[in-house]
Amino acid sequence: MKNSPSTSQPAKVKPEPTLPPLHANDDPGLNLRDLFVYRTTHGLEKLTAKQIDYISKFGYADFLINLMNTEGKIGRKLFTTLCDQSLVEKTNEYVVFHNFRHKLQNNCRMKIARLLAKSLTHPHAK
């Protein structure tokens, strides 16, 4: 017996990803793990096993800082997607710039500052 097209299927909910707990170096008040849980459960980001291993060894903050210090990772698809949804505060660039700006290389800090200035003054931004 074939399934009829009118049979409603329950919506598939993505389970919470298996992400490491906060590292001892991470600020519990900032809880960067929640940021990654949000983005992965909403299908916005998929971390590789290598990235998850790095996070478990060094922490979420160190992962984000190293990611942003690689200029090629600034303002990529995830940033654009989140900005289009008016979720600039959930981008790596926003989080790192507002919490760890002193740990960024000068050229990366300036690139992120220009990107955020452009995004936050956009008419659809918060």
Secondary structure blueprint with pairings:
Layout: H1 32-41, H2 49-58, H3 60-68, H4 77-84, H5 92-100, H6 106-120
Helix pairs in contact: 2-3, 3-5
General description of the model:
By secondary structure, the chain is an all-alpha fold. It has one domain. The protein is built from 6 helices and no strands. The protein has helices at 32-41, 49-58, 60-68, 77-84, 92-100, 106-120. It is globular. The model has no long low-confidence stretch (mean pLDDT 85).
Compact description:
The chain is built from 6 helices and no strands. With 126 residues, it is an all-alpha fold.
Features:
126 residues; mainly alpha; single chain
Query: Mind describing the biggest β-sheet?
Result: none
Q: Approximately how much helix is present in the residues?
A: 40-55%
- Average of pLDDT: 85
- The low-confidence runs, each spanning 5 or more residues with pLDDT under 50, are none
The number of distinct β-strands equals 0
Relative strand content: under 5%
Distance between the termini: 51 Å
Total number of helices: 6
Question: Quick one: overall form?
Answer: globular
Tally of separate domains: 1
Listing every helix as H and every strand as E from the N terminus to the C terminus, the arrangement reads HHHHHH
Task: Briefly note the structural class of the backbone.
Answer: mainly alpha
Could you tell me the radius of gyration in angstroms? Answer: 17 Å
Quaternary state of the chains: single chain
